[in-house]
Design a protein that fits this description.
Blueprint (H helix, E strand, L loop, with lengths): L1 E8 L3 H8 L2 H7 L3 E6 L4 E10 L2 E15 L3 E9 L5 E12 L5 E12 L1 H4 L2 H24 L10 H23 L12 H4 L3
Helix pairs in contact: 2-4, 4-5
Length: about 200
Amino acid sequence: MELSETHTLPVSQQRAWDALNDTDILRACIPGCESIDPDGENAYVVVLSASVGPVKARFKGRMELTDIEAPNAYTIVFEGQGGAAGFGKGNTRVTLEPEGDAATRLSYTATAQVGGKLAQIGSRLVDGAARKIAGEFFKRFGAQVGGGTEGATAPDEGVTAATDEAAHNTESNEAADAESGGDGTKRKKSWKAWISKF
């Protein structure tokens, strides 16, 4: 699976870079993210819940930042396990380019492989879910760094519509967590543009 998109953020390149390296901001922006904890230098353990078609699971994975060229680019290498739902692994190359003093163009290209039930439901559903989660991530990320949603531009109308569905799914998951006494009320929503590639 491959996914490439470009978004314009309403902040300077340095501000965008700092935000991309702030785990609190990432945790708040990644749909379904429960936690992002350090696991060595430039590496993190990530826990998130996600729904891909009929498959719903809680994934635990690890991401590592490599090929770091601050404040211009880095590569995220990730892998995660979702129990019976299957697994996902891959990498994402993220680049930042200034657009004047107050805007930054963020581009990324992600490649991923999935296995288990995720692989059985078909690439079309997996790709669609990845785009939904990525769209929601950038909508939230733009709002976090710029103080509003206007800075996060969706690549097309289909992704925008998908984003709304992703937000609804995340809220439903959080409500279910709250009812079951879990810590869903603490997490805001968060991270799978990278692991979205699951």
